[in-house]
């Protein structure tokens, strides 16, 4: 049965990009829902096909009485309820949610960076809208820090809390600058076998993933909400460390196989990045997440992590930087360089994203149609050539053998171009979509930059302020030196993290370019093979 | 110096097809004039580029005083004069030209066929507008025949004129139906070495082609106007034989190398078709055209050919058909089959032409831009990555080696996609334009169909009319039998010609499909190679 949807809002599609213009209340036939990136392929009542934004339409369920939106078709436990109760069972009270919404406003401040492109901004606010617990969002995290623990740490070291469960974190001097010391026991986590499980007599269902860390080899079962919890812990604890948000949580098609596979893949990439980080990987909370199998211990560990005092500014108390003092001019230059890099990176990633997005949509619409039009025109010509029925002495009207063979070859060519059209349609799955996903992941990482930069800038300013005060005899030498020492810790941490980021970036972009180009090569080779098969049909006519 | 042109008429371009919207009096920069198919690539004052129809613009010549249209820049002997005097020195008086213009009106009658597509119609009328001598155009030729010689031949055999210089033309029964008998001495003609020559002290110049027939091996020199003369002789003589019009004569860029090469190529294909035809190839006028080297003999032969009496209906007096009488029902069925074929062929060729035309324009604009956009986005990313200058212990800010290499690889990828864009731009030259030229050639052949069908239909109707009269005792048996015998000659000729056409069609379409597919394969292989080179840069980073 053909699925249908009703148009909720007018949408003026760019034909050039394969989009369909749709009008409120129009009923469309859904051709494909796994197009990705928030698009469906649909056909309007005039038979035109194209891409429509899924947010602009609402799927209907066919009934004998007619079509109704699918949501009204649910049991009394609506998808929304289930979603809240199941995935958000640790959601905080509405008031804290409101407070957090206010915090989100701070997100608009992008710390002198160029305006983040819409997609990232959206992600960012999605990420904060999503964090149901009382944790602060990115922007507020640093503001709060500056107001309380951050300045306190810099100026006076903050309250001494003794040894952190994570121990001392060392920064060493390496060839390419300061680095986080790699501790022994680097490990990875394999995420696999997503299983739909349910509780409350099947009313609530969720996906459980099997997580197997390489250091223990013992698998644990984790749900998306557990990953979300882990993300919140890491983000609040590791100031100045890039903790990218989790992959988007989508409601639509949450239990569809393709979606589950994709989300698992994205969680895997997120997890790889976290376990590979020299500071995050060996941290207590990560070890707990990846190794705890006992339900009681799990809850204990959770509570302990939530009460961790070595977070935000306090996290720096356990960092041991290299012995050399940093000079302020160098720090400032480094700061500016990185700021320039992030601005430029932000804009060039936005450009690639746009180009890839458009190119991908062209594959789904115009390119496919172009090749199918070519195919159809050959098929039509073959149909014409079938009308070659010359009379022969036997009185039969069959066309001569060569004519029949040519017609067959043309038909084959027609089919070939139809298939090439389909290959174009399928291709983005293999090259452009992975690239888009990859860039989204980087978008998540980039959303951490403004806070890092703001925080570090604040540090540098504080140091300069103290120096000034010392020169004016308002602060004594020892005190100013102590501030500078603590600021060095922060600058070293920033440099180590930037260094870590760059090393990852080089590896990651090398990898994605290889993936992309390999798939592009495969694609053009497959076209070549198809066309060679078609050519062969004509070459055979010579024999 | 950048060439410019002034817009003569508003033109609303389809962006989708890479066209540029232009406005009267706007001055454009000409980017490329060898795009083909009547298009130039130009840039408007806002810096947008796209295709513009060359007929809508007028090229300007830069002078110190400013820009002037190029035509005002010519010597007192304007291009038009030269054209008329040189190429049209056998042009008839204005009155006969007018008469011929009236004849053209008959072209509108398409004999019950579907409306020929615009392009063919245009060709047809171009062809008739072009025939400067007193010869009839296609449509009028048959109408005249029906009014005079045709009916006379059918009903009474027409005036006996004795043996034709071309001798007897036999139609034989072959496996695939009636065929023109192939006489010995089949030959080809090689056309090459186009040379610009001039007369009247260089005021008039023209292109002379070297024509070397394979049967004599002695080369003769012929100009376009000689080919045109030959075409007129063949078209008026060989009723019911497909004599396609010559390739278009273009004024613009008449002496440009690319144009001359292309026209020579088209003349070559036209000539091949004519010499290969079992009736046309061995004809007196063809032998004269291909072998006469002496100027005096050339003029004598010309006059003789122009006075040939065995043309139109009289041509049938020298045809010897197979012994078997044809039955009217079979003839009618054959007639209808061919009519159906031509209608269908007409429309499927029009479809392919449109598809190829659009596809070709997309290569020149959107496709090229798409790949260059991809290239630019990689290049831009490389520029960003150049900003990776982490401090290292030596105090240098150079990025580490891996980072530099990645940036280089990205730059290379950017360049690769730029080049791929350029390959897309160039590609139509190798596959789509030859295909378009080929279809145009077939368009010319197809323009002969309506007259053939009309003529044959007239014959069949006359036969049926005579049979009716005989049944009504208004015509005696012998007379009716004699009409039927002469009608059989015409039907056999039609069948032989249709058969010949189909055999050529099979060969020709096989050939063009091979050309097309081979070039397509080459193209996709070249993309693969380019991408493999780009991929290698990343693979090298692993070492």
Key terms:
homodimer; 543 residues; alpha+beta; SH3 type barrels; 6-stranded antiparallel beta sheet; 3-stranded mixed beta sheet; 12 strands; 54% helix; 13% strand
Question: Could you please describe the fold and organization of this structure?
Answer:
2 copies of one chain form a homodimer. By secondary structure, chain A is α+β, with helices and mostly antiparallel strands. Chain A has a domain at 4-73: SH3 Domains (SH3 type barrels), CATH 2.30.30. The first copy, chain A, has 13 helices and 12 strands. Chain A has helices spanning 79-87, 94-104, 118-130, 138-156, 224-237, 257-276, 284-291, 295-306, 328-385, 401-426, 432-446, 449-471, 477-541, and strands at 4-7, 27-36, 39-43, 49-53, 57-62, 67-69, 169-174, 177-180, 189-199, 204-213, 220-223, 319-320. In chain A, the strands form 3 sheets. A 6-stranded antiparallel β-sheet of chain A has the order 4-3-2-1-5-6, covered by helices on one side. The first copy, chain A, has a 3-stranded mixed β-sheet with strand order 8-7-12. Chain A has a 3-stranded antiparallel β-sheet with strand order 9-10-11. Chain A is elongated and about 115 Å long. The model of chain A is unreliable at 64-142 (pLDDT under 50).
Quick overview:
Chain A has 543 residues and is α+β, with helices and mostly antiparallel strands.
By CATH reckoning, the class of the domain at 4-73 in chain A would read Mainly Beta
Poorly predicted residue ranges of chain A:
64-142
The CATH topology of the domain at 4-73 in chain A turns out to be SH3 type barrels
Name the shape of chain A in a single word: elongated
Largest sheet of chain A: 6 strands, antiparallel
Query: Helicity range of the residues of chain A?
Result: 40-55%
* Series of H and E elements of chain A: EEEEEEHHHHEEEEEHHHHEHHHHH
User: CATH homologous superfamily name of the domain at 4-73 in chain A?
Assistant: SH3 Domains
Radius of gyration of chain A: 30 Å
Question: Any idea what the CATH architecture of the domain at 4-73 in chain A is?
Answer: Roll
- Tell me the strand percentage band of chain A: 5-15%
Oligomer: homodimer
Query: Mean pLDDT of chain A, nearest integer?
Result: 79
Strand order in space, largest sheet of chain A? 4-3-2-1-5-6
